[in-house]
Specification:
5 helices, mainly alpha, 126 residues, 0% strand, elongated, Four Helix Bundle (Hemerythrin (Met), subunit A)
Amino acid sequence: MKRAWIALGLIIASLIIGGIDYIYTATAAKIYTDMLTEGDAHMEQNEAYEAQSLTERLDHRFNEDRQILHIFSFHSEINAIANDFAAMKRYALTGNTADYLAVSAQARERILALKEMRTPKLGNIL
């Protein structure tokens, strides 16, 4: 009987940890995509300095969250997003709007894929 209670406790703990991870990742993904959208708008309006400043803040925030995101994510996915943000900073610095927007769209897709991997669905669990 003890084994059943221990197993139930482990299942409940796993569900709680998974739920916390999903909430954290979904909240962070929303913040990142909102900042990407704002940066895109600045670049489209030829406001490269504002886009660069926003991308710096986005990169700083992502690096703060990175350690937590690494716990349950593939490191390659997290590193790819970080590389996209670094490229966006360079493109904003040079005023290269087309490349900035292309990398921003790629980063957005990767962030949304990261969130999708965390969504509690049967396919993601099994």
